[in-house]
Write a structure and sequence with these properties.
alpha/beta, single chain, 12 strands, 9-stranded mixed beta sheet, Alkaline Phosphatase, subunit A, about 15% strand
Amino acid sequence: MTIHDHGVSRRNFLKFTGSLAALNLLANGRPASATGWAPSDYKALVCVYLAGGNDGHNTVIPALDNPAYGDFQTPGTYRYARGATLALQAGGQYNGISSKLGLNTPLQAPYVLHGALQKLCDRYDQGRLAVVLNMGNLAEPLPAGRADFNDPLKRKPSNLYSHSDQMIDAQTGSKSDGNGWGGRLLDLIDPSLLTSLDAVSVAGNAVLPRASNAAYNVIPSGGNLALSGVGWWPDNNASPALAGIKNGLLKQDGGSPLRQVANRIFGDGIQLAANVQALSSVQLTVNWPQTGSGGLSGQLQTVARIIKSRLGGGSGRQVFFCTLGGFDTHSGQIWQQYDLFTQLADAMDAFYQELVNSNAADKVTAFTQSEFGRTLQPSGDGSDHGWGSHYFVLGDAVKGGVYGTMPAYALGGNDDANGRGAWIPGISTDQFAATLGRWFVPDPAVDWSLPFPAIQGATVDLGFMA
């Protein structure tokens, strides 16, 4: 079986030849902008992107005593729609279920999480985890479900089941301005207050943190973070001389605007490299899962170090992007999702505990996203590309509970876009982003329909943030 890991193409990124290749770090200049909002405290958003399209149907499941769990003979129930190949049950190594979700839930009957997510279920029981139901990319609200979906006058996302298109939509929202929705939040802030580590991906090129005013940087998790050829080893009398030569070269622009921009980017990159290299000395306090520096645990450890190094630096805002790939489960879904959820729960729980130990759990909010969900109806021992899915929001600023409406388990029903259980989202990516945004940038002057057009006519604040 082949596991596909879907990344954002590099072709739209500017390559600055000979500067930061060894660091694998990209730095974009900051264009001038009007003065924005000035934060008086520190906050950060951390996206954990589930690449490939996570199956939400087996993320949040009806409890065994919920009539919606049903059996294999009763249409309109979970087990009937999922079939014996994908329906989770009590017990078993890969298809177990967690304890019930019972806190602040609008659901009329009990639901549970996948058994591999027990650590996140425990955080839910503590009131630190929100579960957002049936969220997905929308061009405008479709409250009437299938009737709206079939209405030619209603706008829908382009190429609905395409990985690349829906990945971009999930990370940008409904506005197409070349920036990610996380970067758009940073653009609400006075650009003079932004730093070089405010828009960061630790998972390769990504769209979500890209902004107009904040310098977007791609930073590797773990490994050697020094610039090749301009490092200061060995530490001897040659180092100051090298620094002088380097700084002198950066001042030689010949009056060329292009060289001035290039020198500024390279100079910023050198300073950024020094800042990033210093992160290795930041101590972590948690026994993190060991999945390699490029795994989700390694990525979140790098994010934790950046955050901890920033906590003593006063007010500000940061947006981070991490990813866990492998969710394109066309086959082998039961065991594959179990393994991925184990990595997800272990890493997010360790990250949260690190924040608690640093007195920063109320300042940092982590959340999951994916390009789409998957079909309720199985395809062999896997599932196909769907639409709406369920997501998590974790942190001490989160109002724990369940938000949104659980669609009916009826193939071809009003919540189904294609007859196979591709749920029509009841909550848009824009609503989700705006809810996080109102916590991140609590500026009453912001018109949230401007950065997030799809919220027009829908609830702006879903209520899961304090």
